[in-house]
Amino acid sequence: MPLQLDVCVSQHIGDRHEQQDRVALLPHPRLRGVVLAVVADGMGGHEGGALAAEQVIHTARQCLEGYSPSEDTPEELLRMIFDEAHTLIRAGRFINEKDPHSTGVVLLLEPTRATWAHCGDSRLYWFRNGQLQQRTDDHSYVGQLVRDGKISEEEASFHPNRNVLLTALGGRETPLVDIGHNDALAAGDAFLVCSDGLWGYFADAELGGLVATQSAREAAEEMMRRARSRGRGEGDNLSLALVRLNEIPVAKPGLASVRRPVGSTPVTSG
C-alpha cells in the first residue's frame, strides 16, 4: 500500500528563560523514505542542558548518515546514537565545566517499519486511527511508582517529584535505553515524539483525537496552544515531532495523477 508522510516539527520556549529542548526531523541523505525524528530535553543549568540536547541531535545526524539497512539493524543504529551521545555529553562535563544531561527519544521510520528508543521522560506515542497502540514508559521516579501500582497516572501528574529521573544521557551510570518497534506500518498510524513540557498537559486519548482528525501541522499547533494555555505562565520548554501516515489515493486510468501536498514525503509499504 503506498503511504505518504504528513510531518510537522514544533517548539516553544514556554515560560523559561532558555530553550534547552532540541528537536529535529532528519531525512537519510541517500535512502528514500528513511527518516529520523529526534527530541532531546536538556538539563544542567545555564547553557549546559542546551549543549547536551544539541549533542543528541548532532550525534543522531552523524549516525544516520552512516546507516545502511543492508549492513545494520535499526536497533543497532538507535543504540549507537544513545551510546555515543552519552559518551560525548560526559566528555563535555570536563571541557565546559558544566554538568550537562539530556533525555532522548528517537524514531526511525523506514518504508515498512518503525523503530524507536528512549532514555528519560521524553516520550513516543504510537496511535492507529487515533487509538493508542503503545507509549514509552518514563524512566522517572513517578513513572516507577505508577508501574509498581503505588500511584495512578492522575496522581503522577501532580506528584512533587514528577521531574526526578532515574536515568539520563550524560549521567554517571550507563543510561537505560528501551527500544520498541512496529513492523507493519499502515495508513492511520501516527507517531508523536515530545518532551515532558508538552505531554504533561494531555491525556493519551486527547492526543489521539488530535492526531486522528487534523493534519500534522494543525494537530501540532493545537497541542502547543492548549499546552501554553494550561501552563498558566509556568510552562516548561515545549518540543514535538509529529508524523502521520496517510494512504495515497490511486489515480484512475485516464485521469491526472494526484498531486502530493507540499512538505509530504512518499514511502511505500507492503
Write a compact overview of the structure shown.
This protein has 7 helices and 12 strands. The C terminus is likely disordered.
Give an account of the 3D structure.
- The protein is of the alpha+beta class.
- The chain has a single domain (2-268), classed as 4-Layer Sandwich (Phosphatase 2c, domain 1), CATH 3.60.40.
- Helix content is 31%, strand content 29%.
- It contains 7 helices and 12 strands.
- A 6-stranded antiparallel β-sheet has the order 8-7-10-11-1-12.
- Strand 7 (123-128) and strand 8 form a beta hairpin.
- Helix 1 packs antiparallel against helix 2 (74-96) and helix 6 (204-213) packs antiparallel against helix 7 (216-231).
- The chain is globular, with a radius of gyration of 18 Å.
- Mean pLDDT is 91; it is low at 255-270.
- This is Putative phosphoprotein phosphatase.
- Residues 6-245 form the PPM-type phosphatase domain.
- It comes from Oryzomicrobium terrae.
- It holds the Pfam family PP2C_2.
**CATH architecture name:** 4-Layer Sandwich
Q: Helicity range of the residues?
A: 25-40%
Give the topology string: H per helix, E per strand: EEEHHEEEEEHHEEHHHEE
Rounded mean pLDDT score: 91
